DNA sequence: CTGAAAGCGCTTACAG
DNA sequence: CTGAAAGCGCTTACAG
């Protein structure tokens, strides 16, 4: 009877060596078989898979990452989780990546470039297989970290004409123009723009608003209410009250996001301001609850799930090398007309 | 001039060896110094840190995880991201763990035990340093995976008397009883309970509702409207309409979550049902927007940020071995009375 | 307090 | 198509 000598530092886990031994092949062949490399004899490969199943073998991701210099995690950076927009985006990313063997690793930047940089510094050393980031607005240091990491990166929610930049988004400016045009077509003349957060995408919507009103000869800078505060229902209510008091002749408001628009609608309810009779109200994104507001909210349905899916798909191609050139995909948004305008 | 021989597989990265060389010590000493072990001569440690800084050394997490059999990631499993409750929880967890050198890895189960199991099977091989899960309701297989992994685990949002189980939460049942009692004190007799999702915590609130009404001799099972659908504003509106039509004598509704309560309030606005004149409406969780509803919503403020912080703190103790025994911490909730009741 | 050796569990690069 | 050797970059366990 041999003494039960355990190796000095065994973790007790079933290793590739065990599988190889059971299948009667070398560890390299076992490794190749399990990773589905083509260069393995089908019969051998089958024997290896069988042995792995029987032993309950699970590859060690750390060993794999160390040896191959690449993990299967995909770092996904979003500004916030409290905006349902990004939750929809993340869900779509997960649905696309996870079944393909990649695990999204969510990082929240809070619209703060220092935080984004810290997240990159923390997670890039893990050698993620890919990177999904929101928009193009980041510190130069963050940009350098991404480029020098050599990790394939797709930008979400905005589009860019810059060559070699992979992105999936839609035209925030055109969408902003579309909803403004809709208000004009409803016969409104004094159309206000209420915004919070003031991130680049909000400012692009603002530009669409301005462009449209200028073309109509109706632009008035006093009708722009821009707050750097975090977007919220409570803030929307305050902005609405403020605007109605200070600018009694306003006959329409384009809120840059549905949550502040909902707040505006609730404030109108409380103040008994007739919507759309006296003031038309429009939002942006078509978030949960907008269709149930009184009156239901006119808004832009943004394709965030589609952005997530298409962005993850593009990244998959980049990571696997099946997509040679980074692309820029522009998706469609949709104007949803409800009773608030 | 020596030929520029690069090692066969160098990743080009600065390694611990480089730092040790620059500091004139062995790699083990460098490793100990950088991890802050006490057994290193302060002067040497300082020299190592200096060298590391100068060279821009960043430890390789994969190598570290492989050698130490432990990563610095903490797996956090929540049911949904679309419920603001869990977003608050995650934010608190991140704020607590990240500065201490641990990175939360978010997994979303969608209230599906098969998905939870798959997430555990996928992420446990990464040897996370700790595990944070929502509630106690999971498959036996999932439970076994957790126990056998040996990874310290804290359960969030519910409390349990079971010994050896680490948890941080509050009494869902008592909170449900508290809001029901409040409605009774307002003189309501026909108090309905509207619920969605029907996860264990919702059912515990239901139990608190039943207990309280039974004690008051006012329990009527026909006043319970339980929907297995996902909780949402739209569903809340439907449940409200349904209830008002089928049970015209209902004079109060306790919604199990603020989002369906908000939907109920919006339906009341649309149907011109007087709240609280004809029907009092109460919610649960105190989510964004509840204070802005018309009328503002009475609800229970649940301590989810506190749960996240305290749960992460407890896990920190468990991971570091400074907390010998798993504990069960019960936190307080707060009744927020607004004008809807 | 410090270090030489071994090892964590894989994959790469080379050879056949 | 298959494998022996080396190596990825750390830390553990032992010795001094």
TrEMBL record, chains A, B:
Name of this chain's protein: LacI family transcriptional regulator
Keyword terms, alphabetized: DNA-binding, Transcription, Transcription regulation
A single MF term (Gene Ontology): DNA-binding transcription factor activity
Family annotation (Gene3D superfamilies): 3.40.50.2300, lambda repressor-like DNA-binding domains (1.10.260.40)
Keyword Transcription set for record: yes
Organism: Diaphorobacter nitroreducens
HTH lacI-type domain mapped to chain residues: 14-68
């Amino acid at each position: 009877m041999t003494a039960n000598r355990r190796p000095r530092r065994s973790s007790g886990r079933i290793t590739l060596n065990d599988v190889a031994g059971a299948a009667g092949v070398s560890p390299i062949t076992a490794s190749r078989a399990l990773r589905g490399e083509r260069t393995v004899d089908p019969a051998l490969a089958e024997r290896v898979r069988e042995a792995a199943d029987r032993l309950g073998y699970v590859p060690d991701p750390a060993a794999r990452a160390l040896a191959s210099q690449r993990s299967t995690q995909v770092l996904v950076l979003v500004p916030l989780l409290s905006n349902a927009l990004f939750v929809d985006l993340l869900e779509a990313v997960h649905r696309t990546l996870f079944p393909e063997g990649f695990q999204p690793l969510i990082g929240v930047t809070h619209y703060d470039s220092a935080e984004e940089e810290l997240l990159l510094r923390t997670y890039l050393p893990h050698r993620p297989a890919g990177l999904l980031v929101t928009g193009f607005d980041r510190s130069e240091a963050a940009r350098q970290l991404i480029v020098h990491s050599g990790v394939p990166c797709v930008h979400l929610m905005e589009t860019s004409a810059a060559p070699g930049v992979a992105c999936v988004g839609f035209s925030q400016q055109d969408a902003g123009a579309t909803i403004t045009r809709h208000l004009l077509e409803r016969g409104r003349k004094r159309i206000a723009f209420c915004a919070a957060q003031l991130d680049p995408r909000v400012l692009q919507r603002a530009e669409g608003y301005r462009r449209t009103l200028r073309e109509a000869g109706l632009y008035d800078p006093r009708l722009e209410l821009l707050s750097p505060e975090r977007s919220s229902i409570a803030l929307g209510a305050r902005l609405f009250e403020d605007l109605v008091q200070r600018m009694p002749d306003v006959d329409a408001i384009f809120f840059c996001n549905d949550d502040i628009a909902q707040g505006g609608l609730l404030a109108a309810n409380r103040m008994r301001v007739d919507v759309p009779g006296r003031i038309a109200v429009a939002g942006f994104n078509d978030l949960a609850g907008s269709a149930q507001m009184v009156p239901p909210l006119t808004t832009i349905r943004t394709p965030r799930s589609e952005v997530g899916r298409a962005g993850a798909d593009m990244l998959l191609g980049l990571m696997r090398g099946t997509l040679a050139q980074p692309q820029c995909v522009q998706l469609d948004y949709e104007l949803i007309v409800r009773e608030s305008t």
